[in-house]
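Subject: sequence -> C-alpha cells, single chain

Hey, anyone have a minute? Need the predicted structure for the following. Not urgent.
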Amino acid sequence: MGIAERKGRERAAREHRIVAAARVIAEREGWDAVTIRRLAGEIEYSQPVLYSHFENRDAIVAAVAVEGFKELAAALREAASGSKGRRNALKNVAIAYLAFAFSCPALYEAMFVLPTDLRFAEAGTRPELRAGFEALAAVVTPFCVNAADVTETFWAALHGLAELERSGRIRPGMRSERIALVVRAIVAPGKG
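Reply:
Had a minute. Here:
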C-alpha cells in the first residue's frame, strides 16, 4: 500500500467521523448544537482539520444529507421489494418514507429542511439524491404516463405529511388514512 492510498483512507475516515459526530449531536440535541467548535471537541481534532475537510457547517449538513439519501433509497427499495402487488408496493413505500422521516428526524431535516448546496432535478444531481427519487418513481411508474410529474407530486405529498405530522399541525393517528388517500390519488381505477 502506498503513502497516498493510506492518506486517502485516513482522510476518508476523518470525514466519516466528522459526519457521524454531526449526526449523533443533531439527533440528540438538534442542529443548532452542531457547530465546528463542538464537532472539533467531540472528535478531538482541531477546527482547522475540520475546515480542511468541509468548507463550513452547511457542507457538513450536506454530507449528512447525502448519507441520508442513501439510507432512504435503500429503505424505499426494500419496502417495494417486499410487497405483493403494485398497489401494495406504492403503499409500503409511502409507509417506509414516513417511518424514515420519524425515526431519524435530524437526518430528515438535513435532507429536506436545512440549507445545503445539494441540487435536485438537474443534470448534475448527485447519484445518491437521484436514487431516492428513482425508488419512488419505480412504484409510481406502473400507474401513470408522466412518471416524473406524478413522482414529484407523490414525494411532495409524503414530505408535506411528514412535516405537518412532525410539527403537530395535523390530527394524530390518521397516518394510515392519509397514506390510503395518497395511494388512491395515484392508482387509476382498475390498475391496482
